[in-house]
Design goal:
single chain; alpha/beta; Uracil-DNA Glycosylase, subunit E; 12 helices; 13% strand; binds uracil
Length: 216
């Protein structure tokens, strides 16, 4: 698919998301937040679900957590318009509560299709709900910042779990960790890092420090 065809398909999905009534979340929401960004993105960021401002504007990560995401992107010299930003649920959960498993399941087709169209090299999961989509057994405090290859719907992606930016806004310790984890992204875009990640992954007993050292 060329960029125009990808763009057209993404727009079609956005149209369907805007009409979606597959779970009750749409009832309490002002509008859907389908996700946005480049159809040719090398990096895809996946958050949890729209918050207050996203629900007002229909744009992902446009509130306080989004301002931090923008700063983190600037810190690695990546333009926001060059990546794709989405969420596991496309309508705001009331009062920003956690999305329920049935809401995530009902919404998954949209995100799965977006991933399949864009086929990014790297998927950055922001928070535990998007991490759980690819690494259900993962504990974010233990595996954040550790890239791994994940096969998803027949394609391989580098998935790197990170804390949610909103968590970083509440804790200086997490802020330090998310900054450090972000700083690894440029290296991961380089072709020659693929072998390193694969080798680290093939050693199941490899401690966290060993995996991290490959990226330092
Ligand atoms: N938090 C998320 O998980 N997603 C957004 O779009 C905004 C805040």
């Amino acid at each position: 698919m060329n960029e125009d065809e990808k763009q057209k398909e993404l727009e079609e999905i956005a149209g369907q998301v805007n009409e979606c009534q597959r779970c009750p979340l749409y009832r309490g929401a002002n509008r859907a937040v389908p996700g946005e960004g480049s159809p040719d993105a090398k990096i895809m960021f996946i958050g949890e679900g729209p918050g207050y401002w996203e629900d007002q504007r229909g744009i992902p990560f446009c509130g306080a957590a989004g301002a931090l995401l923008d700063k983190l992107l600037q810190s690695i010299k990546v333009e926001r318009k060059s990546v794709f930003i989405g969420n596991v649920v496309k309508h705001r959960p009331p009062g920003n509560r956690d999305p329920l498993p049935e809401e995530i399941a009902a919404c998954s087709e949209w995100l799965d299709r977006q991933i399949g169209i864009i086929q990014p090299k790297i998927i950055v999961t922001l928070g535990r709900f998007s991490m759980a989509k690819f690494i259900p057994e993962g504990k974010i405090s233990q595996i954040h910042g550790q890239p791994r290859f994940i096969e998803f719907e027949g394609e391989k992606y580098i998935v790197i779990p990170m804390f949610h930016p909103a968590a970083a806004l509440r804790s200086l310790e997490i802020m330090g960790k998310i900054k450090e984890d972000f700083s690894k992204i440029p290296e991961l875009l380089k072709e020659n890092k693929d072998q390193d990640i694969m080798r680290a992954q093939e050693r199941p007993e490899s401690p966290k420090e060993e995996q991290l050292s490959l990226l330092q």
